[in-house]
Amino acid sequence: MKPVKGLYAVTPDLADTAQLVAKVEIVLATGVRWLQYRNKSADDATRHRQAEVLRDLCWRHDAMLIINDDVALAAALGADGVHVGVDDAAIALARAQLGPGKIVGASCYDDLARAHAAAAQGADYVAFGSFFPSSVKPGAVRAPLALLPAARTLGLPVVAIGGITLSNAEQLIKAGADAVAVISALFAAPDIATATRHFCQLFQAQTT
């Protein structure tokens, strides 16, 4: 099982599957190895169709496909895992449905205690945020930067999310984020390939 690390691309809500696939193809071809399929506005049939296409695309690029919130969809498609939030399937239930070889990530918002509970329940990574104002979730709770170094004691990969851009991602990485989950600053960028490369370079700089 690959540990979550680096740029973690999260898909935007797009009804046009061809447009979505074209954008994802760019980020995968430019180095992204973690993709979360998230579409809060599509119907079930569209979500199944889009996720199926993205699964095949990820596998061609040796990338991991994580399904947001929908354990049943992840199981049906044989996706690499699922990401669950406070209102989604419990971690134990997700694990039972997907099996031990799949990845279960958990949103922990601004709550370190929730992260400890998620770790105890068998989560493979924990995510915190929103660290910055987010156009995708404008009402999201704000997480303090101090959560990232504190969460390192869990022994799990730590993901930062929420309003992340090229100008603020580096401080999250330096504070302890193993990965940054990005939607708008990636998929809405004028040049998606260039944005992807620059995000990936932020992580490379930390290892050199």
Low-confidence stretches: none
First-last Cα distance: 25 Å
The largest pleated sheet is described as:
8 strands, parallel, barrel
Overall pLDDT:
95
Order of helices and strands: EHEHEHEHEHEHEHEHH
> Please, how many domains?
1
From the 3D coordinates, which CATH architecture would you assign? Alpha-Beta Barrel
Query: Rg to the nearest angstrom?
Result: 16 Å
Describe this structure in words.
The chain is of the alpha/beta class and 208 residues long. The protein has a single domain, classed as TIM Barrel (Alpha-Beta Barrel), CATH 3.20.20. The protein has helices spanning 17-29, 44-60, 71-77, 91-98, 112-120, 147-151, 169-175, 184-187, 192-206, and strands at 6-10, 34-37, 64-68, 81-84, 103-109, 125-128, 158-161, 179-182. Strands 1-2-3-4-5-6-7-8 form an 8-stranded parallel β-barrel, surrounded by 7 helices. It starts with 5 loop residues before the first strand and ends with a helix.
